[in-house]
Amino acid sequence: MALYKRRRRRRESDEPDNHDRWLVSYADFITLLFAFFVVMYGISSINEGKYRVMSGSIVSAFRSGPDTGGIGVASPMAVVPPAVPIVPIPVRAKGEQTRQTKKEHLRNLANDLNQALAPLMADGKVRVTEGALGITVDINASVLFAPGEARLDLGAVRALGAVGRVLAATDFQIVVEGHTDNIPISTVYFPSNWELSAARASSVVRLFIDTAVDPRRMSAVGFAAQRPVADNATAEGRQSNRRVAIRIESLAPDHRVELPLSE
After folding, report:
1. Residue 135 forms beta bridges with which residues?
2. Helix, strand, or coil here: 217?
3. CA distance from start to end of the chain
4. Edge-to-edge strand order for the sheet containing 134-140?
5. Contact at 8 Å (CB) between 164 and 208?
6. Beta-carbon neighbour count of residue 26 at 10 Å?
7. What angle do CA 105, 229, 130 make, to 5 degrees?
8. What pLDDT is stored for residue 255 in this prediction?
9. Does domain 94-252 correspond to CATH entry 3.30.1330.60?
10. Can you give the pLDDT at residue 133?
11. What is the pLDDT of residue 22?
12. DSSP-derived secondary structure letter, 215
């Protein structure tokens, strides 16, 4: 017996070590990892109907019945509550609401401007129009300035002061344009119609600033005789072209359309 044990011990010591035993653990790990991803894929691919059935079954399984003594066993009479359908509530787009609100503000602003300019509208020399880009107020220069001058008359100061107080309560951009006829002017203060039209527009802007209109919302532009609204060949046409246009723009500065420069 001792001889047999010595021979067995010698035979076991002569057998080489197996270095590939780690493959068994590695194969088990790969199998578990594959099973994990299969389960994750199955969960992610479940449809809504199966999910409702599964969730209802889980709730029923963990609901304690009257005869289970508090053990989580599904009651035979358990019924999965029906899913409540979600009815979408129609909501008006924010952009549409903004446009509608802006139109209402412009309509109210046009009415307020008509009331403020009533003293200057008696002779039909003031016109308020509303377009796609906002409101334009055309005022004949004869009711604002003396010929060849850019200082506002006293009556014009009172009327435009009322307009400025109306505009101060809004947040629209305001552009004041000065226009003349095509008859050249050459004085010490105004070498040409360009200086005269720009100075008249600036006078109106300064008056609006004095009535609490935010200066950052305004700009003054002089066009001289480059944008006539009537024929300069007649005295009536030239009188119509001598005007100041106040444009209240409904588009925000970042929404204005810029035309590409021609090459």
Report:
1. 130, 248
2. helix
3. 112
4. 126-131, 134-140, 243-249, 173-179, 218-224
5. yes
6. 9
7. 10
8. 43
9. yes
10. 83
11. 72
12. G
State both tokens at 246.
């106040």
How many other CB atoms are found less than 10 A from the CB of residue 159?
Answer: 21
Give domain limits for the chain: 21-87, 94-252
User: Would strands 126-131 and 134-140 be described as parallel, antiparallel, or unpaired?
Assistant: antiparallel
Q: What angle do CA 138, 141, 146 make, to 5 degrees?
A: 165
Instruction: Report d(CA 218, CA 213) in Å as an integer.
Output: 8
* Strand (E) or helix (H) holding 94: helix 94-116
Residue 100 corresponds to which amino acid?
Q
CA neighbours closer than 13 Å in the CB half-sphere of residue 44? 6
What is the number of other CB atoms lying within 10 angstroms of the CB of residue 156? Answer: 21
Structure tokens at 256: 């204005």
What does each of the 263 residues of the chain score in pLDDT, given as a tens digit? 555 555 555 555 555 666 667 777 788 888 888 888 777 777 766 566 666 776 777 667 666 555 544 444 444 444 455 555 555 555 555 556 566 777 788 888 888 888 888 877 777 789 888 887 889 999 999 999 999 999 999 888 988 898 999 999 888 999 999 999 999 998 999 999 999 999 999 999 999 999 999 999 999 999 999 999 999 999 999 999 999 999 999 865 444 434 344 44
The two tokens of residue 211 are: 């009535």
How many C-beta atoms lie closer than 10 Å to residue 64's C-beta? Answer: 13
Nearest CA among 177, 175, 167 for reference residue 214: 167
Single-letter residue type at 231:
D
For tokens 């969960």, what's the residue?
A: 43
Task: Please state, in angstroms and as integers, the Cα–Cα distance from residue 75 to each residue in 52, 62, 69, 242, following that order.
Answer: 18, 9, 12, 92
